[in-house]
Design brief:
The complex is a heterodimer of chains A (about 110) and B (about 160). Chain A is mainly α. Chain A has a domain of about 60 residues: Helix Hairpins (Orthogonal Bundle). Chain A is built from three helices and one strand. In chain A, helix 1 packs antiparallel against helix 2 and helix 2 runs antiparallel to helix 3. Chain B folds into two domains: about 80 residues, Four Helix Bundle (Hemerythrin (Met), subunit A); about 40 residues. The chains are: A mainly alpha (about 110), B mainly alpha (about 160). Chains A and B meet through strand 1, helix 1, helix 2 and helix 3 of A and helix 1, helix 2, helix 3, helix 4 and strand 1 of B. Strand 1 of chain A pairs antiparallel with strand 1 of chain B.
Amino acid sequence: MPLLPAAVPLSWYLLLSAVLFSLGVAGFLFRKNIITVFMSIELMLNAVNLSFIAFSYHLKQVDGQIFSFFVMVVAAAEAAVGLGIILTVYKNRSTLEIDEIDSMKN
Amino acid sequence: MDAPLFLLFAFIAVASAISLVVQTHPISSALSLVGVMVSLAVLYLLLGAEFIAAAQIIVYAGAVMVLFVFVIMLLNAGTEHKSSKSPMVKWFGIPLLVVFIGVISFIVQGMLPKSALVVFGTFTQGGPLEVGRALFTTYLLPFEVTSILILIAIIGAIVLARKEI
């Protein structure tokens, strides 16, 4: 029996997607810098894209790729608006720590 | 040849993602995210999604990450402070994530047949021709709605970047 299979099972791609998504959730929950939190969201979107394209291969249809294309477009728009919000927050509060941006607390 | 390529780039993706979460400086996290995106583009090529792989490199690793690095440089973001985390995070957060991965892998193993293999070259419907045809016929309405979304995002970014907010 060879050490590695000749072809990769589809479930490996989906497991990789789940691991990347969990790491994105971990970064979103544990990090304190607002830019790193934002990058963790991008990591989660990328993990979901991998699932879409793996299922697109499995079903032999192009629709999953179209969905991941739309996710990409939404992520680009989200990055533009989100980074604008981060710039405005920094201009007003002079901090990037999410723990210190708490004016809506209490 | 599929398995070594998959394992190599899956390893790079997971290592870069761990580096993204662990690094304390935002620039290091941003460069790790570029590593994740480039290795995912290689996996998209293995799955036969040529157009999406190219778009991943150009849009994500190119445009979006340049925007991120630009903002990090502009704000001169430094190393994160160590803040006191609540004990809930340490005792429940990481075990719950491990449980989440376990449940996902259990469901995936149960749902997919063992014969579902990924062989490079057996699915060639992911080129610009097929993607473009689907985009401009079946998915024409979502495509046009997306253009309105991008217009709103541009206007929102301009409004946010004005001086008096």
